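[agent] plan:
  1. take the single chain provided in the ticket
  2. run structure prediction with default settings
  3. attach structure tokens to the ticket
  4. add a short note for the reviewer (M.T.)
[agent] executing step 1
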Amino acid sequence: MASMADIRNGMIIVFKDDLYEIVDFLHVKPGKGSAFVRTKLKNVKSGKVVENTFRDSDSFDEVRVERTKKEYLYREGDFFYLMDVETYEQVPVDLAVIGDKEKLMMENMEIIVATAPSGEILSIELPTTVVQAIAECEPNVKGNTASGSGKVAFTETGLRISVPFFVEIGDKIKIDTRTVSYIERANDK
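[agent] step 2 finished; step 3 output follows
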């Protein structure tokens, strides 16, 4: 059992019969009354963020989550096959765990997998940026670069993203996986 004093960022706890990661916390010691901690908790499976206040008398269970590097190999139906980079063991991961990150994943990409002590895969973490090629977008029209808006494009994995007007089919772009937004054109290497 953990208490209010044990709270730290990145800690995984059992809260309301589900697993939550502590994203942010603030110890508050008012002039009158006992101290408390305001927290932002992120549901490990759904990604939903909730706020909660823990009092000194509150206790909760801490869950030890193992994070390992895996390489995404391929997709077959609703399963994504990942390989452990040290043991070369292949593990199928259900689409429900991957969620909306599926269109950001590229073959041979290294990802971090969070596993519960029971062996259940809780979530995956992608690299901060990925590079994908543009497969479909409107053609570039001279003079469009003056406005600050952009156009809709689709990447090779089917990801729908807003890009500047100068981006064309075949261009490789860098995408921020946290916000799923265009960063810049990638250098051809």
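[agent] step 4 note for reviewer: Residues 19 and 177 are 23 Å apart (CA to CA).
[agent] ticket updated
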